Amino acid sequence: NKRILHVQCRFGLDTLPLARLGAKKVIGIDLLNIAIEKAAQLAERIHLNHIVESICCNIYETGNHLKVNNENDLFDIIFTLYVVEYPKGTYTDLNVPTQQKSISWNHILTNIMMVLIENHLKIEVFKEFDTIPFNCFHNLCQITDDEECQFKEFKEKLPLTYAIKTINTTTTSRN
Fold first, then answer.
1. What are the domain boundaries of the chain?
2. For residues 124 and 111, what is the distance between their CA atoms, to the nearest angstrom?
3. Neighbouring C-alpha atoms within 13 Å toward the C-beta of 159
4. How does pLDDT run across 53-83, given as a tens digit for each residue?
5. Could you tell me if 5 and 27 are in contact, meaning their C-beta atoms sit under 8 angstroms apart?
């Protein structure tokens, strides 16, 4: 029974299950028109178009495309995907005969934190982790059965992932 904003939803493949899990409303945004059109078609095809809305916009202009009349229009969860690529070569030599899995979220942490602050979101938890849930760099070693990896030589010194939990300071009745 939550309101969810799915950023970088592409064609809605991960947006629709959020609706199926019982969300009150799910809004997916993406930059590509064709992806948003496909997302809307899929939602209609599986009869979730009354819960799922798809909006084509630049992530930085999301606020211009959302209808926020009161606190009931705010989101309980903002969900985003990271990008998975399989580039050939290395960053120093694209012709090296190797291919590594690369997972990224290309937004500067300072920008993320400032957007949270500017939108009256109090940061309750910010935690860095010296592990990453996949082996994406040279010199990583797997440390758990579920594929968590870290750099041996930088254990507890180099953050590889982070988590942020916020609360909206403009309302007190929301979870």
1. 1-102, 105-174
2. 18
3. 8
4. 999 988 778 888 888 777 777 888 888 876 7
5. yes
**Rounded to whole angstroms, how far apart are CA atoms 109 and 48?**
34
Q: What does the alpha-carbon distance between residue 36 and residue 166 come to, in Å, rounded to a whole number? A: 28
Q: How far is CA 159 from CA 38, 155, 156, 163, in A?
A: 37, 9, 8, 11
Long-range contacts of 141-147 (CB under 8 A, 24+ apart): none
Structure tokens at 54: 């798809």
Question: Tokens representing 34?
Answer: 């064709």
The CATH code that applies to domain 1-102 is 3.40.50.150
Q: What are phi and psi of 116, to 5 degrees?
A: -60, -45
